[in-house]
């Protein structure tokens, strides 16, 4: 999700990252506080004081966001959900989970923990703002208010906002159907996002350009996130319990280790247009895998004499999968390693090849059927090995 991010520091064992887009937000916040907010809240101070207040306010805001996300992360860890880290980006913060919550109760508590932290911070800052110098009172009153707004905004029952996650958890617990619960919560999220976009457009048209643009962009972001989250759940539901063997191609084309790279390119890469081939001896024992990147790393004039054995990679965790493994785990492994093909190994025997393309085709079919008929799509069942073009069975 984040291409350009830096690890800023870590807290309670969680890595906190800063996305490049966040710098724009930091500048905007300091500017708005210094020029627009504090001169109104505490008039008559020196310009330099407003700058210091602006910087302190921005630091306080970002610390508040980190604490909100830490609230989510600590509860997630308590329920054994691995967290990939906390990232600050242009629309705030996000605690990235590596897996879905184990149950509705865990999700409800995890989603609620963030707004709870924000409410506690709001109360704390508002108490602190009761007395002190004018600048202090304005700064703490601002931080108290913004934490209150953060809590209120996040509690809106629009998935994937925290309130939407709590709604999904409640529906999930009620009907024990994660897919239905996600669909309802995501529809609420989508509706709210469209309202936000419309309100943003109205703002831009009526002269509130910055505020309107901001609502418009947040609406777009939420809309995308609601759709993605729903698709992810659908992918998980579609593939969960379906073994890799259901989707793999059996008897894949293998490459001899003594083949020259020139032959490999002409007779395999160009002919079959696969980006990875398993390398195997004549008796079928797999030795490794060769990918287009391996060949590309060798200068063209050496292709005639270098062999596959010299450039191939060993088979391991990143490029293989068990035929009985969950297809969803295979998808996760592909996403993590960036490989679009995995070698399916049964013990030390080559069982087949699993291609991302086949998994995605099945998923696209599922999405289409769901959209078209309103009926739940069929789940893959154990059955005869799949033939090309018949991944979906009714
Ligand atoms: Zn949150």
Q: What does this protein look like?
A:
The protein is of the alpha+beta class. It folds into two domains: 235 residues, no CATH class; 130 residues, CBS-domain (Roll). It is 57% helix and 14% strand. It has twelve helices and ten strands. Zinc ion (ZN) binds next to helix 2.
Which helices and strands, and how do they pair?
Elements: E1 5-11, E2 14-19, H1 20-41, H2 47-78, E3 83-89, E4 92-97, H3 104-128, H4 134-154, H5 162-175, H6 178-205, H7 209-239, E5 249-250, H8 261-272, E6 276-280, E7 286-291, H9 292-296, H10 308-311, E8 320-321, H11 327-337, E9 341-346, E10 349-355, H12 356-373
Helix pairs in contact: 1-2, 2-3, 2-4, 3-4, 3-5, 5-6, 6-7
Q: What is the domain total for the residues?
A: 2
> Kindly state the mean pLDDT as a whole number?
82
Q: Which molecules are bound in this entry?
A: zinc ion
In the predicted model, the low-confidence regions spanning at least 5 consecutive residues are 373-394
Q: Tell me the major beta sheet.
A: 4 strands, mixed
Strand line-up in the sheet with most strands:
1-2-3-4
Helix coverage percent = 55-70%
Care to count the β-strands? 10
Order of helices and strands: EEHHEEHHHHHEHEEHHEHEEH
Radius of gyration in whole Å, from Cα? 26 Å
Helix/strand class: alpha+beta
- Head-to-tail CA distance between termini: 34 Å
The shape is elongated
Strand coverage percent: 5-15%
Number of helices, where a helix is a run of at least 4 consecutive DSSP H or I residues: 12
């Amino acid at each position: 999700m984040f291409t350009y991010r830096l690890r800023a520091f870590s807290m309670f064992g969680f890595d906190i990252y800063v996305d490049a887009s966040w710098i724009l937000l930091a500048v905007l916040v300091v500017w708005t506080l210094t020029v627009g907010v504090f001169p109104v809240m505490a008039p008559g101070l020196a310009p330099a004081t407003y700058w210091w207040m602006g910087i302190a306010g921005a630091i306080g805001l970002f610390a508040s966001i980190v604490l909100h996300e830490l609230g989510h992360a600590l509860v997630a860890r308590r329920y054994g959900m691995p967290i990939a880290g906390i990232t600050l980006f242009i629309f705030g913060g996000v605690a990235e989970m590596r897996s879905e919550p184990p149950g509705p109760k865990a999700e409800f508590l995890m989603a609620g923990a963030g707004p709870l932290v924000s409410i506690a911070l709001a109360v704390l800052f508002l108490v602190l703002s009761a007395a002190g110098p004018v600048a202090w009172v304005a700064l703490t009153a601002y931080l108290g208010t913004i934490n209150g707004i953060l809590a209120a905004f996040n509690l809106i029952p629009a998935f994937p906002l925290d309130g939407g996650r709590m709604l999904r958890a409640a529906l999930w617990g009620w009907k024990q159907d994660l897919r239905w619960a996600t669909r309802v919560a995501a529809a609420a999220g989508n509706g709210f996002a469209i309202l936000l976009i419309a309100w943003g457009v109205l703002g831009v048209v009526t002269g509130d350009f910055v505020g309107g643009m901001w609502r418009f962009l947040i609406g777009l972001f939420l809309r995308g996130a609601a759709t993605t989250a729903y698709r992810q759940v659908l992918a998980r539901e579609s593939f969960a319990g379906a073994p890799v063997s259901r989707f793999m191609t059996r008897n894949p084309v293998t490459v001899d280790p003594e083949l020259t790279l020139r032959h490999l390119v002409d007779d395999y890469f160009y002919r079959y247009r696969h980006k990875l081939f398993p390398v195997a001896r004549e008796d079928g024992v797999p030795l490794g895998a060769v990918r287009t990147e391996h060949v590309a790393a060798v200068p063209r004039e050496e292709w005639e004499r270098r062999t596959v054995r010299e450039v191939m990679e060993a088979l391991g965790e990143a490029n293989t999968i068990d035929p009985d493994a969950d297809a969803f785990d295979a998808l996760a492994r592909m996403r993590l390693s960036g490989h679009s093909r995995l070698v399916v190994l049964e013990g030390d025997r080559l069982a087949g090849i699993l291609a991302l393309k086949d998994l995605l085709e099945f998923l696209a079919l599922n999405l289409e059927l769901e959209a078209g008929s309103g009926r739940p799509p069929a789940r893959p069942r154990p059955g005869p090995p799949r033939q090309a073009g018949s991944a979906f069975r009714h």
